[in-house]
Amino acid sequence: MTPPATAAGQAPPLLDRLCVGPGRAQPFGATPVAGAVNFAVHARGTPRLWLVLMDPGTGTVLAEYPFPDEGRVGTVHTIRLYGAEPGSFDYGYRVEQPTGARSPVLLDPYARGLAGAGAWGERPRYRSRVLPLPGPPAVPRPLIDPADLVIYEAHVRGFSRDPSSGVSHPGTFAGLREKIPYLRELGVNCVELLPIAEFDESDNTYTSPESGAPLPNYWGYNTVGFAAPKSAYAADPTPAGADAELRETVGALHRSGIQVVLDVVFNHTAEGGRTGPMLSFRGLDEPAYYLLTPDGEPLNITATGNTVNAGHPITSRFILDCLRDWVTRYDVDGFRFDMASILTRGADGRVMDDPPLLAAVAHDPVLAGRLLIAEATDATGLDQVGSFPGHGRWSEWNGRYRDAVRRFLLGRRGSAGEFATRFVGSPDLYTGRPTTASVNYITCHDGLTLADWTSYDRRHNEDNGEGGDDGIPDEESWNCGYEGPTDDHRVLRLREQQRRNALLLLLTSAGVPMLLAGDEFGRTQRGNNNAYSQDSPVSWLNWSHTGGQAALLRFVSHCVAFRRAHPVLRRTTHPDGALPDGWSYPPVSWHGETPGEPDWHPSSTLLAVMLHQQQPVGTADTVYLAANTGGARRTVRLPGPPPGTRWHLSMDTGAPPPLDSHPPGREPALVRGSLQLAGHSVVALTAR
Fold first, then answer.
1. CA distance linking residue 553 with residue 278, whole number of Å
2. Is there a single domain that holds both residue 398 and residue 492?
3. Which of 2, 62, 196, 305 could form a disulfide with 273 if both were Cys (CB 3.0 to 4.6 A apart)?
4. CA 644 to chain centre
5. Final residue of a domain: which of 82, 98, 129?
6. Which of 377, 371, 428, 424 is nearest to 399 (CA)?
7. Where are stretches of biased composition, namely Acidic residues (predicted)?
């Protein structure tokens, strides 16, 4: 074993008790072992590698140990640090570059904690930190059938940052934990968190046009540490604090019957293009981790400066190891993969027919039973919705559902038939797959909020400092007669109806519904549809609106309860019009003003559907919906309910609150066999 080469001056006490020797090549990263810490790092093409120890408080370099030659196994360099305890030091790596010079101190790609970030908004000076091995989860995670999920997409900081949240630690995992009673009352059973892996919020080149101050990278799609929770999301903004607080929060959510899905970003990294910083991957093995042009330049098909080489075995292993780490360390329930189509590209940037990483993730035993959700697009315009290589495991954000429901609610030509297909789970896209392959949504973090979709005809992104030209150019939105805030009661009434229409259709469609946090009480971003740089009330949830929008909040909770009460809305097989033996009605039947006569004309603004389920034997569940997307009232005759039942009114978005919704079991019975549909309204009935 070799003593350290110390910095000038008296060696600190820590170094007095340390010595090193060769380590083990498995696992990668820094792993506490008996009386020591084992380090293993892949670094191809470098003859020499150093372990750099730093003071955990100041980041001052304390010593640099050369990795011993006898500890090298293939391209894996190993070293074991005896006498070291997790948290007593920070560390990094240096490599000998082709010029012979030593690289900057590099981060460990496998680091479970990154020090030097501090509180939100502080310029980070990142250092890797060893964390103790965790114990088993304190709370068993809830096992929820994907068909029963209602997903709620939220940003950890924005969810509780506003003073109106009333939490003790706003903008943190702890703040999210304090809001669990609200989530339970709303009825959602899965939260999907925007990136929580360590990222640099100060990494944004744009400035505020109003103040000239630098704008942040608020969303966090620029990962620095892929296995490390973001320290600034903890009340104690340290690696150990974030580690403990995240585990406590996941456990509290699980105890409340709520699953946790993480938004992960494996398509690019915070190292950016050639002018970006060398943080880790570029110094250790750039050709393995990144797609490069023939002349060695980063291949930028993510519009971020670099593209991860996900098909390379080294990088595939790294991604798998990170996913396993989040599952085994924090017991998360699944992942949403940002720009997942990048993961289908080979070394030349072309789309592969059978990407090895996707198969490996789908069949990995540690990830079995965890949700895998792909954003099946990338920055080049590649759209794999319905064709993403799912291996029977992957689901997809269904952007075509989003577009179809928006066009339908605006009465666009040809939209009734298009939305009918999306409503029953998009069987044209997911033939041979369950309806749960489709994660349906109307809004997400990227784009207008639901309130803004009803309030703006165009984006208003001037605050982003990009001239207002960033973000999605056209969102099929309608301001209902006036652009932006207004006190016109007719406009406000129409906007409220359109929001309820969208939410009711979403929560009755086949597939997995996803709500955007705040849509349930009318959150606005003042027309900004690309608020990635807005760490302000523009992006924060204003909880005082939960009082002002109590009627909408009540409506949404009733819609979630309605979905939960009706198995016919949560079927995993795509319903068709064939009549099974012994059934009163087929699984799905389409209607119009007259039963059995749907209007499929391109100009149609009326869609009526009856959903029927007669399994298991002796049970039946029947729901009828009628949507009028035109401005005039419509009268529809109802099909007869199953024998021995009557139609009851569950929802009517054209009625004033509280008559617009009724909780399951308390729906009033209809006395007539017809419905009067208000303009721009949706009605839901149940047979009982």
1. 47
2. yes
3. 305
4. 44
5. 129
6. 377
7. 464-477
pLDDT for position 679: 98
Domain of 520: which CATH number? 3.20.20.80
CA distance 511 to 139: 28
What are the backbone angles phi and psi of residue 294, rounded to the nearest 5°? Answer: -55, -25
Q: How far does CA 598 lie from the centroid of its chain?
A: 37
And the tokens for 415? 């939209």
* Residue 635, C-beta contacts closer than 8 angstroms, at least 6 positions apart: 593, 674, 675, 676, 677
43: left (phi over 0), alpha (psi -120 to 50) or beta: beta
Q: Are residues 460 and 352 in the same domain?
A: yes
Give percent of the chain above pLDDT 70.
Answer: 98
Mean pLDDT across 508-529: 98
Structural tokens at position 539: 């992006």
The predicted structure's pLDDT at residue 618: 66
Q: Are strands 190-193 and 259-264 parallel, antiparallel or unpaired?
A: parallel
Alpha carbon 588 to chain centroid, angstroms: 31
| Locus of tokens 């080979």 | 346
Instruction: Clarify whether residues 630 and 597 are in a common domain.
Output: yes
CA distance 610 to 486: 38
When pLDDT is cut at 50, 70 and 90, the band that residue 616 belongs to is: confident
User: Tokens at residue 343, please?
Assistant: 């993961």
Name the strands in the sheet holding 19-21, side by side, starting at the edge strand that comes first in the sequence. 19-21, 76-82, 36-42, 29-33
Same domain, residue pair 155 and 125: no
Helices (H), 35-99: none
- Using DSSP's 3-state secondary structure scheme, residue 154 falls into strand
Of 226-230, 361-365, 614-618, where does mean pLDDT reach its minimum? 614-618
Q: How confident is the model at residue 12 (pLDDT cuts 50, 70, 90)?
A: low
Burial 178-192 (b: 16+ CB within 10 A, else e): bbbeebeebbbbbbb
**Size of the chain in residues:** 688
Residue ending a domain, among 540, 567, 594, is 567
Q: Give the active site residues.
A: 338, 375
Q: Please list, in sequence order, all residues whose beta carbon lies within 8 angstroms of the beta carbon of residue 275, skipping any fewer than 6 positions away.
A: none
- Note down the domain range covering 648: 575-687
What is the distance of C-alpha 510 from the center of its chain?
20
Q: Give residue 435's pLDDT band: very low, low, confident or very high (50, 70, 90).
A: very high
Q: Determine if the pTM surpasses 0.90.
A: yes
Residue 120 covered by a domain = yes
**pLDDT given at position 515:** 98
How many angstroms separate the CA atoms of 258 and 260, rounded?
A: 7
pLDDT in tens, 251-298: 999 999 999 999 999 999 999 999 999 999 999 999 999 999 999 999
Across the chain, what does the average pLDDT equal?
95
Distances in Å between the Cα of 341 and the Cα atoms of 226, 232, 472, 475 are 19, 30, 19, 22
Rounded to 5 degrees, φ, ψ at 482 are: -155, 135
Burial 267-304 (b: 16+ CB within 10 A, else e): bbbbbbeeebebbbbbbbbbebbbbbeeeeebbbbbeb
CB 500 within 8 A of CB 414: no
pLDDT, average across residues 235-261 = 97
